[in-house]
């Protein structure tokens, strides 16, 4: 399994520290997600290790929303507190397994089965307590035995509606 620390790719500072617009509400959340892609020529092309690595690098350049912490001021303005030194380094992992897309589909893509096969990433100890609540992005790509792909991602970024 290859694990890549992508922290050195974070921008040195946010393009803007002010957030404007008609944001209705925001919340910070931990969202584990596994997406499955069935075997196909398109999957092999679009989900190649090189292409996914480049996509994440591109995404990190727009990362102030992912890696910034937001503050609401007394006048109800919102500012972005972004410092790459105070972020958990984003990680990207790749692995290859013999389990197939068909086998996972036959078990209704059960999370317990995914966990049993190691398709997920464990939440680091202490990362969800208030004192350790740092921005985080973890991605794990599993190439399945029949050419399918399982893509696990988890972030605790701030979402807007």
UniProtKB/TrEMBL annotation:
Domain of life: Eukaryota
Protein name, as recorded: Uncharacterized protein
Xref: InterPro entries: CAT-like_dom_sf
Source organism of the structure: Coemansia pectinata
